[in-house]
Amino acid sequence: KQATRDRLSDAMAEKELSAVVLRLRHSLSSCCKSIEGGEEETSGLLEELASFLDSISEAATSEPENEEARKNAVELLLEIQSFLVSSSTPNQAVVDALSFELPKAVSKFAGVSDRCLEIADSIIDWFVGRCNPRDMICILSEALDSLSTSSDPGYAAPLLTGLSKVFVSIKRHHFKQAKLAVPVVLNVLKVVSVELADRDAERVLLFNIALAMADSICVVSTKLDRGESEELQSLMGLFILQIMALVSASIPSEQSGCTPLVSEICKLLPRCGLTYLGLITESDVDAKISIVTKDKEDDIMTSFPDMRLGASLSVIWGDISNEIAEQAGENMSALKDKLQHNQVQRWEAIGMLKHIFSSVILPWDIKRHTVEFLLGITNGSFTPNCHNDEPITDCSIYMPSLFATAQAITKVIMHSPDSTLRKNSFEALKRVLADTPIPERIDILQALITNSDSSSMMWAIMFDSLSACCYSIQTAILLDLVRGELRKETLPKKSTNRGDEAGNHGSPTESAWTERILELVELVLRPPHGGQPSFPEHGEAVLAALNLYRFVLMKESAGKTNKTGVLFRKNLLRVCNEWLVPLRTIVSSTMADPENDPDEVAGMLNPIELVLYHCIELVEQNLSANPDSP
């Protein structure tokens, strides 16, 4: 009985398949006749054919275990292939009309099985060989665009492959055609990075096809005149840098699985005129942008939002793997040595690393390697404050970028789950600051404090106590760095490494002992938005600020100096009346509040109370000792 049932089921399936194939043949035949006759209903017939094929592909993909649906899909694709390559091949008008619907329709079968992918590739390849190349670029790009928004992006493989092949056939206007396709391809890859997170094989396949397309375009560019060749290479350079960013972010947990893709990307860097030195200093990126954007009204650059991130990552991957660096034709030791001995290029490199440190989608492992790279290029004695053996008279143009990197490093310090990474990041932050002239260094430190994630204590208290605590810890770290800077200037000078001492940078007259120090303390004890610091949220920052003020006051008093202006009577009175006494009131009321846990409050406020009272005592002593000071 079971055998009989199976035979009946098979017979019904065969009958159903025959009906489907007959319907397809009829639909194709009707379309051809209508196109050849120039009939008005051609558009409707083509839409009906596409809708019919979509229903079959949807049935096959929605039920992966349904063998009959998979078999129907293969048979339909074979029928289309047979129709196209048969002896009664349709004329060019028919081919052109079918090219608007069939490539997109058959690509949706790619996810059904490897056999379907193979046949879909063959069908699209047939159209690529018989249609106008420029028309096919538009058709395939539009199909890709629709797939990226309405279907499984995994079906894009045949379309991407076809796009890669059609570029080889273009005779002119290569740059113009490439600019049409690149944004669409990158959009698909962006969707792929998210939608195919759990389908590694499909994701890697699509990235590899995109890189093959870039390779094909680079080959074509070598046969063009210098102007268009340069434009194409520049466009492909930005294209692969954007892909580098997508690849690095989309495979976060499997570095070894990501390496082959990264190797393929780095192999293309020299062909696009990109070097590691040019990438890490941003000069190559800027050069490619200027070439690609000669048309000021062109919005092509919106397709490369992460190109600078990709440029930085390209170098970091080379530092991670010698094999990857070799693929790019680079020597990492020589690169680091060059950066160590050229301050401007080192500043430019440090500035580029902010894109990695500030990224929220990259894995911590890549940030760890980036910190190690930064430590590598800042490891050694200070180089003169010069560029090409000439003094740097204006370093202000580099400071915004250095500040952004320092700010991004503080985020790594605050949020990394790994203690070693936090420790190394702190060392990296010290070296970035040490590599900066003292006046600008103080500017950066002040900006870091005032522009932290929760620079407004009031808002942090009102809406997010956790953010307030993070702000407090970050501020404390930065103020301790300032105190360290001041302490080093009081020590005997000796030959030192960049990470160990910051006080000997720049001209001999430069010093961190300036009136700016009081401004930093005031930012915490007397916030610019008004009000007073609150406990327990800002305990760490307040303690660091008090320690900094006490250190400065003691050193200036003992050395009978007043570089910071801390000993001026007006400043002593202002600090006592506006900072310290109000803070004493807050500390006392917090400790007396019955709603607070006594042990917890004591653990936090006892150190603050101790330093606070010592500060008040020192201020009173200096007021008494210098009653006639201004």
UniProtKB/TrEMBL annotation:
Q: Where is the composition biased (Basic and acidic residues)?
A: 492-503
* Coiled-coil regions listed in the entry: none
Q: Which GO terms describe its cellular component?
A: cytoplasm
Species lineage: Eukaryota, Viridiplantae, Streptophyta, Embryophyta, Tracheophyta
Q: Where is this region: Disordered?
A: 492-511
Q: What is the protein's name according to its record?
A: Aberrant root formation protein 4
Q: Which GO terms describe its molecular function?
A: ubiquitin-protein transferase inhibitor activity
Top-level taxon of origin: Eukaryota
- Signal peptide range equals none
